[in-house]
Amino acid sequence: MPASTSPSDTGSVPTRVTSSRFIGRTRELAELEAAIHDASGGRPSLAFIAGESGVGKTRLLGELEHLARSAGTRVLTGDCVALGEDELPYAPIVAALRSLTRDGDPVLDELGPATRAGLASLLPELAPSTAVPAEDRDAPPQARVFEALLTLLERLGREDPVLLAIEDLHWADASTRAFLAFLARSLSTERVVLVASYRSDELHRRHPLRPLLAELERGPSSRRIELSPLTREELAQQLEDILGGPPEAGLVERLHKRSEGNPLFTEELLAAGLDGRGELPPTLRDALMVRIEALSQAAQEVLRLLAPGRRLDHATLADASGLDAGVLREALREAVAGHIVVVADDGQYAFRHALLREVVHDDLLPGEAAELHLALARSLERRVQNGGGHDAQLAAEVAHHFLAAGDQPAALGAAVRAGLAATAVQAHGEAARLYERALQLWPRVGDPQAIAGMDHVALLRAAAEAHDLGADRTRAEPLLEAALAEVDETAEPRRAADLFERLASLRWSLGAAEAGLSTLERGLALLPADDTSPERAMLLGLQAKVLMLGGRHRKAIEASREALKAAVAADQPAAHSRALNVLGTSVMSLGDVDEGAGYLRQAIALASQRNCFPELVSSYVNLADNFHTAGRSEEARAIAREGNERREIVGSGRQSAWLELIEAEIALDTGDWAFAERHMPNHGPVAGTTFVNFALRRAELALIRGEAAKARMLLDEVEEVSSDLQEPQFLGVLGALRAEVERRDGELDLARQAIRRALDRIETCTDDVVRLARVAAVGVVVEADVAQRARDLGDAEAERRALLEADFHVGRVSAAAEDGGPVEEAWMRSAEAERTRADGRSDPAAHEAAADAWEAVTRPYPEALMRWRAGEGHVAAGERDAAIRALARAYATAAQLGAGWLRGEIESLAARARLALPGAAPAVEPEAAAPAEDPFGLTPRERQVLALVAEGRTNREIGEVLFMAEKTASVHVSRILAKLDVRSRTEAAAVAHRLGLDRSVVAQSQTA
Fold it and tell me: What is the mean pLDDT of the chain?
């Protein structure tokens, strides 16, 4: 074609719409190829391609797939579909797996029955031919799906690396998003790379993909590729390939200006004959409709059906459209030849671009759209009834189309069936939305119970459970309340008791302890003492559990034994495991570690055998936590790791995140901070005690790393939701961390308040001595600072009160240590050492003893804290060699851990005392010879200035006393602050008082 030729000259659409050349994106493609290369070497990763609609994400992904296949990489592709609120669970994953089942991939034959069972929930044809082991048969389907998919990817990657490509991630369903989060956490050495594309301009502020991307794209094995529009030169290359020759400069300029470099817009404007010379349609949609309207009526009819259907195979199109077989074939050929429709690898038809589908769909009249949706709903429902396809996805599609068609009775029944199907594969978010829709339709139809196959109370409970297991736990509470309001407690006491048990457990876990307890009491009151029902057994188990969580372990043991009898009588395995869990946890907490561990191991075994997965997770967490608090952290971490390795059994959602967190917590305490940070779950969209637990652990990590602002923000969030908490395991940590944050900022009164508030909330009747010991020991640290400040200010009464308060705290820690183990003993040693600091006679030997106690239980951070304090005491006593030894050990640990605040404190002390520590900054040389007793290198003149600073004199007053200019006095003060490594005149005065730097020159300065 000559250079001057344009589409308008020929009066026809170009024979090719899309450029056959891959233009631009060289750097982006190279980065993605590098990811595949890394995966082939056992370094899996995730990559995300972001950009506006039509910018070339699909083309880049397609080019990558082509190159990957050419290089021997196995490629699996799937795309997300938009159903608004009605998402199809695992839509892109199912699409990706279809090629394996269609081609009969031999790898599928190598999979074990448990893995095939997990995959069969997505693709029924993969159901195992042999029986599934009992321990796997009834495991949570979502957990099985995730683990089975990971196993499949690992097996596929043994021979060749695997590229899993997902398009339109902005439409991803909740289950697919959960799988991506699982994959990001779980990939280690698998030869897999996941590449997903999404429209960045679709992600509004509340889009559910935003928080997931924020988490995943920050990961060390993730990369984000943002596509920008084509340059003018690149667009010229695109036009040259489409037109068959170099385009005229004016055409390039006009199309680049009007398409703004968007490749799709350029192609569509060119295909519509809009070369930029004439009037451009008001919108791009009008331009796209020019091409649609050029097709025959039959082809347009097919497009109108395909628009609400999104992806349809030939059989569904034939069934729903009612077109003659020959007419349908010709219509499809025309749409494909016109570059409107493409045929996917699985034989399904879809629009070439989502914008084309949107244009056709938006052009439908309301009645026309309803008819098409109804035809599709009936066609797909016949397919479900005939046993074809994948139940969860097809059921969701049927529900969507019936609703869009306005057939409310059919929509109600379909929504319930789709909700049940989604529940069967643990797609809780989708199930919750479907049940909610059914609840909305309930009052609008006749005889809804017959249509739904369940009564209204059952539907409310199902929706509540889906929300509870999904992301919106707070929504579960009003649903359960509504269900209770409809139950006659006299006629159906057991049904009401079941709802009360669920509501009480939910309220407690949401942090509403008092409401949870009163709800629990109402449930128990409904059933007589001789009732042997599963409902009463569960209520008694919950009663024992809340006693245990509240730190009342002696009472919890009594209650758990009663619950155990009821559970055995009712043959209720969940209640049985729960009672053993409570009994073991409380016995361990009271000091008999091995006996209690035996009960917890029984709870784990029973929960595993009888598929009581929430109790299984809880038992693993409690066993690991109690071993850890007993000082047996190596055993604790092994238990946590065992639980995490059983993800296929325990699940992969909110519950199993507690298992991940306990292992991270143990790693944090024992010095493996890198592992802790990598495996600490993001508190994200969770509520109640789950949120509190996640946020507190992240706050603790931030605080010991020296990120005080982040720690304070997290603690503020926790305090907003913890006013009604009654669990020492959270209240103790909150009080200790809040006190330390305030203490570091010099807010000693606020630190005191944090300690008192925590003790007030956990001390009454608690048997949780380890949390009590921690709070009280931190209280001694705070009072030591208060006493020191009082001495600096000459406030004898404040010092007396601080010492008295410190004694009370030491007494609390000592009492806890009497009934506790080695961890409580370490807290006691720390409290005793800090009590000497409160007296102003910091005893290095006491701090060394505390450090040794922490070392014995493998807690390197508090060990380093005590060695720093020991070094501080040695400095004050003039014992330089001993100070160097203590500080060198503390500094090495702080540096290795990454404890920024502690490292800074040690460096500051070493600089002030002029001690040379390995790896620390060298001490500052003095300006002139300093007195032997001055460890800071202050000149005689600076000591005179410091004496006056300690008296509270201003720079002008200092100048008048010492006969120097005010500016000169200011310079001296600045130098003194630097040498003392303090930030204010008040801190300088405190140091001077504490170490007596002003005493020998007071008379001299006053005489002068």
Answer: 85
Nearest one of 362, 423, 403 to 174, comparing CA atoms: 423
Q: Is 940-1007 a CATH 1.10.10.10 domain?
A: yes
- pLDDT band per the 50, 70, 90 thresholds, residue 138: very low
* E strand or H helix at 607: helix 593-609
Spell out the CATH class of 294-452: mainly alpha
Contact 484, 499 (CB under 8 A): yes
What is the dihedral sign for C-alpha 489, 495, 497, 501? Answer: negative
408 vs 234, 263, 431, 865, CA distance in Å? 52, 42, 18, 67
Least confident range from 283-287, 766-770, 831-835: namely 283-287
The DSSP element (H or E) to which 337 belongs, if any, is helix 325-337
Dump pLDDT digits (tens) for 343-368. 887 788 998 777 778 788 888 988 99
Cα(436)–Cα(412) distance, integer angstroms: 10
The whole-angstrom distance between residue 367's C-alpha and the CA centroid of its chain comes to: 44
Going from the C-alpha of 681 to that of each of 602, 646, 672, 693, 736, the distances in angstroms are: 28, 17, 16, 10, 22
Q: Which DSSP helix (H) or strand (E) runs through 396?
A: helix 391-405
Between 928 and 342, the more confident residue is 342
H-helix or E-strand containing 731? Answer: helix 728-744
Tokens of 820: 């506790």
More confident residue, 502 or 388: 502
Q: Extract the tokens encoding 162.
A: 């695997």
Residue 133 has pLDDT above 60, yes or no: no
CA dist 48 → 41, 139, 640, 681, 871 (Å): 20, 32, 32, 21, 51
Alpha carbon of residue 545 to chain centroid: 26
Rounded to 5 degrees, φ, ψ at 21 are -90, 145
Amino acid occupying residue 255: L
Q: Same CATH fold, 294-452 and 26-114+155-229?
A: no
Q: What is the pLDDT of residue 232?
A: 87
Band (400; pLDDT cuts 50, 70, 90): very high
Q: Which of 234-248, 339-353, 548-562, 934-948 has the highest mean pLDDT?
A: 548-562
Q: Locate tokens 């302890």: which residue?
A: 513
3-class state of residue 57 by DSSP? helix
pLDDT for the residue 935? 60
Q: Which residues pair with 342 in a beta bridge?
A: 350
d(CA 907, CA 917): 8
In the chain, the N- to C-terminal Cα span, in Å, equals 101
Q: Which long-range contacts (CB under 8 A, 24 or more apart) does 117-122 make?
A: 117/144, 117/148, 118/144, 118/145, 118/146, 118/147, 118/148, 118/149, 118/648, 119/145, 119/148, 119/149, 119/152, 121/145, 121/392, 121/424, 121/425, 122/90, 122/93, 122/94, 122/97, 122/390, 122/392, 122/425
Which of 841, 930, 931, 906 is closest to 877 using CA atoms? 841
Q: What is the CA radius of gyration of the chain?
A: 35
The CATH number assigned to the domain with range 475-666 reads: 1.25.40.10
According to the model, what pLDDT value does residue 819 have? 75
**What CA dihedral angle connects 846, 850, 851 and 853, to 10 degrees?**
140
Domain extent listing, the chain = 7-16+233-280, 26-114+155-229, 294-452, 475-666, 940-1007
The full DSSP string for 767-833 is --HHHHHHHHHHHHHHHHHHHHHHHHTT-HHHHHHHHHHHHHHHHHHHHHHHHS-HHHHHHHHHHHH
What six digits make up the tokens of 566? 């009821």
Of residues 891 and 265, more confidence is placed in: 891
The percent helix, strand, coil of the chain (3-state, each to 5) is 70, 5, 25
The number of beta carbons lying within 10 Å of the beta carbon of residue 908 is 15
DSSP 8-state class, residue 312: B
Query: Does domain 26-114+155-229 correspond to CATH entry 3.40.50.300?
Result: yes
